Amino acid sequence: MNEGRKEPLAIFGAGWVGLVTGACFAELGHEVVIRDVVPEKIERLRAGKLSFFEPELAELVERNGERLTFTLDAAEAAEAAELLFVCVDTPPTYSGDADLSRVWTVIDELPQLERRPILVMKSTVPVGTGEKVRAALEARGRSDVGYVSNPEFLAEGGAVNDFLHPDRVVVGSFAEADGDRVAALYEKLEAPIVRADVASAEMIKLAANAFLATRISFINEIANVCEVTGADVEKVAEGVGLDHRLGPHFLKAGVGYGGSCFPKDASALKQLASNSGYHFQLLSAVIEVNELQKRRVINKLQKHLGRLRGKRIALLGLAFKANTDDMREAPSIVLASRLLAEGAEVRAYDPVAKPGDLVSGMTTSKSVAEAVRDADAAVIVTEWDEFRSLASPEIRDAMRRPLIIDGRNLLDPEAARSVGFTYEGIGRASSLLSELPQTDEPARRETSSAESAEHSSRE
Ligand code: UDX
Question: What does the pLDDT look like over 43-66, one tens digit per residue?
Answer without folding.
Answer: 999 999 998 889 999 999 999 999
